[in-house]
Model the fold of this input.
Amino acid sequence: MPQIDRPSHTGELRESGRQQVLETIRAQGAIARIDIARETGMSPATVTAISAELLEAGLIREVQPEAKPTTGKRGRPRVSLALRGDAHKIAGIKVAHSSITVLVIDFEGNELVDHDMPLVQARMEPEQLCNAIVTALEQCCRKGSIGLADISGLCVGMAGLVDATRNFVYWSSSLTSRNVDMGAHLGQHLNCAIFVENDANLVAKAEHLFGKGRDVSDFIVITIEHGVGMGVVIDDEIYRGTRGCGAEFGHTKVQLSGALCQCGQRGCLEAYVGDYALLREARLLSDEATPQSIGQLSAAAREGDALAGSILERAGRMFAMGLANIINIFDPELIIVSGTHSSMDYLLTPQVIEEMRQSVVQVDAPLPEVVQHSWGQLMWAKGAAAYAVEKVSAQCVRRLVLDAV
Amino acid sequence: MPQIDRPSHTGELRESGRQQVLETIRAQGAIARIDIARETGMSPATVTAISAELLEAGLIREVQPEAKPTTGKRGRPRVSLALRGDAHKIAGIKVAHSSITVLVIDFEGNELVDHDMPLVQARMEPEQLCNAIVTALEQCCRKGSIGLADISGLCVGMAGLVDATRNFVYWSSSLTSRNVDMGAHLGQHLNCAIFVENDANLVAKAEHLFGKGRDVSDFIVITIEHGVGMGVVIDDEIYRGTRGCGAEFGHTKVQLSGALCQCGQRGCLEAYVGDYALLREARLLSDEATPQSIGQLSAAAREGDALAGSILERAGRMFAMGLANIINIFDPELIIVSGTHSSMDYLLTPQVIEEMRQSVVQVDAPLPEVVQHSWGQLMWAKGAAAYAVEKVSAQCVRRLVLDAV
DNA sequence: CCGATTTAATTTGAGAATCAAAAAAATAAT
DNA sequence: ATTATTTTTTTGATTCTCAAATTAAATCGG
Done:
């Protein structure tokens, strides 16, 4: 009884070597073999062998040392290795309330083309949503003169409870039904590797691959938008929990029987710091001056409007408390507060940081760094693409190892 | 320039194989080679090779199949492998407020002897505490007729902020000074492998090796005692955070500007559900009936005392909120509420579980199981011993691999 | 301009860990 | 006794990796 595809221990080892090299190259952009050896702890001989294989497979390329390094350094010049962008085209897709954003990148991470397709309604039946996704992808491909068949893989990011290991959506604000097997649905329309993930996790991925978490193996990303999301990276992996619905930072409770949240429960952090929560309170301001957007509210506060100020102040204090709790629980190296708009301007103020500091368990060791990162509107799609790239990468390596047999 | 102790990739692989076999044997108690192969995914050939080595090293033994398995099963009978208890003697030591508990176990986990030595004062200078620990260990060894030199390793568990990777104590309620290198201090008195850990993490270890977390790779242990502690096991490893001071569940904030905690901050969960918090409130009861212990308070509540009832009810609600937050963040497979006394009787009631359920993000998937586990007073020491056993195990394997070269 | 020096990459040969398949061992069934 | 069955061990091959030696490609110094 031959055991065919049970991963052998040696196979795993081999895979991990290749994976490591590829990841190192991706993390560094362009890096010489000798530095890969240093970085990964492998011997130069092994790096040579592996990179030869990756070169042959067309996944990486040698970068000719552009300019003479003029600075007198003797010895054989190092030849850097970089990813071959044209090895694959990969799509990241974000389903938002009012539009679907698509971004196509190459294997190296270069953005080829993006597209935003408005949605007429925010919540749809699964089939309807799939059609919309496919349409958005097609439009994007057409715009960039890319064949749909050239897409090696894609990832769809959506708000809600997603079990990424199964491409399964327990619940999403974009879907009218619960418990949808999005992977299967999309698979009927598209013939490429398909992944579905929670959007906050995708931002974490984006930070890890392209952003401020590039060289960090353990960090936490917090997104503030309509709701509040969190992505946790532990040991270079996204932490997901058993059912795939962990890291629901926005729905951790910060107040017994507190404010009503869009999830129907009370006292969620989101119900104090999310967009809708602030605007809900802002409506109590005198009618004429009622701010319709966070920007207006924030401006009113800056101009000395006491009520607006107190709304933002409370949100800030709640946010500080939430941040402190995260630090007390995870003790991460780094916290990245990511967003597409300037939520940070009023939420991540020095006062909030100070308040957070005072709610963190006191230790004579430096606090985790808290940084903010404003991305463009493409943040989400970029994260989705990053995730898909990683998955496709892993698939390539796996195929490489199998083919070698 | 030969690179001597940089762990080679092959060495890691080899180590992992041996480790895996040993762990499987420990987890299963006694298990045949073929089942180890099935369990770990290795080939039977490899298991034979590895177990031969472990047998020769004296770490495991063959268990003769006791009774004829009468039930007609043909074929060569399987020979189970078990740990050799006499391979090592290991001490677990818990430093509590009023005493030091020591437990000596053998390599197989059998309890050989335990001892409790009262302490005259709860907080001491490092040197003083070390002396007390050594004295307690000596007394325990004498009681069990064990030579101090026969102890292969020990672990000291203490409440507070401990960086176990460095055996370093940022702060502990048992120490008068901060930032103590306990490992170095103890090393001057004892000549064996020494480990220092946070006590909640040790309970997690105990649950993982001997308790309800035996076959679970991801779970969370919550301890309620004087304070509230948490141990997080992710992927069969204790999660510690970067500075080694994560998982401070007791000091997560559940109320803005809330009740005063012993840590000096406000609104910590511990300040609502810890022993001292309940007794603090209970003092407001009519003087004569003031309960001096949790047991009395709990009894009063059961007898219909409204004030006592409301104290416990609020504690329960806060605890439910804390539990729900943990689930929302970690989405664990299992939560074990561990304790030496019956805190569970009033904290882990059906009402609390129900309230927790209502504060958890709603998913059409079964809730994480919440179980309670009452250990004897030896719980902590047992956890410490479990941790030390694991570490010593790993050390043995490492030595085995190195010696083979 | 040419050898000496330096650094990077590759080749070579060997060691080690694993696995598949075959063989051996130990038992039950017939 | 013979056959069937199951576990364990042995054998031989594979292959992943590494150390050391070698080759490659540059600078430096005279």
